[in-house]
Structures are given as C-alpha cells and as structure tokens.
Amino acid sequence: MSTEVLPTAQESAYPPLRRSLFPMLLLFLAANFYSIDKAIVGVLAEPIKADLAIDDIQMGLLMGLAYSLLSGICGLWLGSLIDARVRKNVLGWAIIVWSVSTALGGLAPNFEVFFVLRALVGLGEAAVAPAALSLIADMFPPARRGRAISAYLIGATIGTALSSVIPGYIVAADLHLSVPGFGELVPWRTAFLLCGLVGPVVGLLFFAVRESERRGQAAASAEPSRAAEKLAYLWRQRRVVAPLFSGFCLYYVAFVGVSAWTAPLLMRTFALTLPEIANLLGLGLLIAGLAGYFLGGLVADSRLGAGKGGRILVMAALPVLALPAGLAGLAPGLVPAIVCLAAISLATPMLNVAMNATVQEIAPNDMRGFSYALLSVVAALPAGAGGPFLIAFVSQTVLGNEARIAASFVLVVLPALALASLCFLLAWRAYARAEPDSELARVIRASHA
What is the pLDDT of residue 220? Predict the structure, then answer.
C-alpha cells in the first residue's frame, strides 16, 4: 500500500467555517449523548444492584465487559466501514441503535437481558469516535484540529456531568413512569428510558447534513485500503504504535475503573446519597473536564504539541497528573477525595485530545477510521472490560469485602497509570527517532499539508 500523499489545490481548500458549524454541533450532541448513555450504569450502580439482585462482580461485568464486548469484536469492521462508506450515515444509524438500546435497558427484567442491551449500546457507540474524528480531519486544517477535537469532546464532558445530574435528580424526585405492559417503573429504570429516547432525534439529523470530502487520499489508489494493508502499515510503525496504544489502554484501565466505581465509592466510604453525588460530581466533572479539553486543545495546537513527538511527551506526563484518583478512597475527607477524583477528570480530556490528534497525524486519510477503531478496540476490550471488573474482583474476591473498594482503587489504578506513562515515553522515543525519509515521516508531513 502506498502512503505517499499528494495534496492538490482543491484538497488543500477546507470547507468554510460556517459550513462546518452545524455538523460540529451534531458531533457535539452525539458525544454528549453517548457519554450519558455510557456512564449512567455506574452512577445508578447501587439501585440497579438492589433491583436485579446482583453482586459487585456482576455489576462490574455490566459496566465493563457487556459494554465492550460487541464494541471490541466489531470495532475494526466498523472502522473499515467508516473508511469505505458515507460516514454521516454510519454515525446516524449508530446513534439510533445505542439510544434505543439504552431506553430498553430501563425495561430489562434481569441481568442477562440487561447485559445484551448494554452490549448493543457499546456496539453503537463504537462507531462514534472513528466517524467523528475522521470527519473533523476533513473539515478543519491541521492548525485548527486540536481545538475542533476539543469542541467535539467537550460534548462528552458535559454528557458525563449530566450522567450524574439527571439520574440523581430523577431518583431524588422519586420519579416513576408507567409503561403499558411493564407497569410502573422505579426511578433508575425511568432514568434509562428518558435518557435513551432523546438520541434518535440527533441520529436522524445526521442524514440531512453534507458529507465532507475526504482529503489526502493515497495517490496510488482512490479506493479505500483493505484491512490487511492497513494492519500491515500499522505493523511497520509498531515501534510507535505498540507502546502508544498500550499506554492508552493502560490509562483507560484506570480511568474506566474509576469512572464506573466513583459513585459506589462515595456512597460506601463517605455515606453520600445519590442526589448528593449528583450535585458534587455533576459540577466537579464539568469544571475539570472543560478545563481539560480547553488546555488539551491549546497544547495540541501549540508549539509544544506540534513539536517532534511533543503531543506524545505530554501524554507521558498526564498519567502522573491522574495518580491522585487512585487514592481518593483514602482521603481524610470528602473535599480531598473530590479533588483527587478531579485529577483524572482533568487529565483524561487532555490525553484524549493529544491522542486523537496524534492518530490523525500518523495514519493516512484512508486509514483514519480504521486506526481510531483499532484504538477503540484496544481501549474497549482490555480497558473497558478490565477496569470495572478488576476493581470489583480485587475488593470482593482478593480482599474479601465489597466495602474495601478504596483499597481496590489503590491496587488497580496506581500501577495502571504508572505503566501507561512508561509506555508513552517509549512511544515518544520511537517517534522522535523516525528518519526524515521514512514512511512514517512522509505520512506525518502529508497530514500537515
């Protein structure tokens, strides 16, 4: 597969900013809704456990493996589909699938049905990041991409904050809905139903927008590369790609585990109620997340981020910034615990922006969807499934007590973050040593055209 890219004058002319605003708004809303539908299980973990009569390990499977299963299995296929088909249509159908599955989760009678529905949520959401980031790369020139990615991902931050606020207030209001054939729904089920019913509207709107022209296609062929060729290219860049993706996976073992079990940690350690958690986490996650994406966009587009491997070097520092999250349950009070948790909420958006901008840089245009999908698979199966499960397994089985979740945070989160930082350093060293005439260097230069 030839990866030499020959930009033309037509390709260099990106669409005017005004034409990109509405698609960006839809991408923002998509990120918002997928964050709500993804995180809502962790926020409502305690009432779900009680209603379905399950333990921490089963809850960990619902928050991790269930969501990650189809996402991991089908992720590469979705990435290839995004590279070959109309991306906005793939995105529209994906939003409809996960939103309807979220709503139906509120009607699930048992653990098994709920597991299947969460798997369908994960399948739909697996298409979002690859499609969205591929579209952004074709809508904005390199000098604006970091900020465009930040704007898209801010939607995810707001969604994560709302995933605490909306269920918390529904539970506080003791809101019950009556559904024909299912009777009166308890508050956690009502929250699922209401959150899931909004998304299909956004999904349908994607069918009405104009698809962005793909830019910087490989000169050797106008046809999308085959999966084998894409894997072969990534294999040739393994000295950068392997530690880069491994670091991202290890970081997300920590982040997904912390995100999934934050509400139970605060309820068990500090005796907070769900409405109290909604007030604390909603505001805290919003402030930290917005600050993280704002700083991440600035760094990604700055001289530091644009330098030789500068973004990867920044990524190596971010797991260190996130380390206090592993100590949150051991904090001497509630306020220090929230500050510890805010550290990972600040670091993660910055990492996401830097990672996504790096993938856009090292992957040719006709491989971006596939590369993002591979990254999602790497994060989805080991990290998405492993993070929530490991914290539950360590507290319930290794330590022998679900109440010892604070110690489980220490044993799972801190080693994962330390190893992530080491992996990013290895990736940075390999990136910085790339020869000027190497295949990777040519692709990087083309991404800046």
Answer: 38
**Helix, strand, coil % in the chain, rounded to nearest 5:** 80, 0, 20
- Within 13 Å and on the Cβ side, how many CA atoms surround 191? 28
Largest CA distance in the chain: 67
Phi, psi dihedrals of residue 241, rounded to the nearest 5°: -65, -45
Tell me, what's the pLDDT at 72?
Answer: 77
Distance CA 284, CA 279 (A): 8
CA–CA dist 410, 326 (Å, integer)? 5
- Residue with token string 């030499």: 4
Render pLDDT for 359-381 as a digit per residue (tens, 0 to 9).
878 888 777 777 877 887 776 67
Domain range annotation of the chain: 17-213+224-447
Cα separation, 40 vs 111, in Å, equals: 16
pLDDT at 27 over 50: yes
Q: Could you tell me the fold of the domain covering 17-213+224-447?
A: Growth Hormone; Chain: A; (1.20.1250)
Identify the three-state secondary structure at position 184: strand
- Reduced 3-state DSSP string for 227-247: HHHHHHHHHHCHHHHHHHHHH
- CA atoms within 13 A of residue 248's CA, in its CB half-sphere: 26
CB 284: neighbour CB atoms within 10 A? 17
pLDDT (tens digit per residue) in 95-138: 999 999 999 999 999 999 999 999 999 898 888 888 888 888 88
Q: Is the Cβ–Cβ distance between 24 and 190 less than 8 Å? A: no
CB 124 within 8 A of CB 206: no
Question: What does the pLDDT average to over 442-446?
Answer: 65
Residue 294, pLDDT score: 80
Residues forming beta bridges with residue 177, ordered by sequence position = 185
Radius of gyration of the chain from its Cα atoms, rounded to whole angstroms:
21
What are the residues facing 184 on neighbouring strands?
Answer: 178
Pairwise CA distance, residues 156 & 255, whole Å? 14
Tell me what the mean pLDDT of segment 230-236 comes to: 84
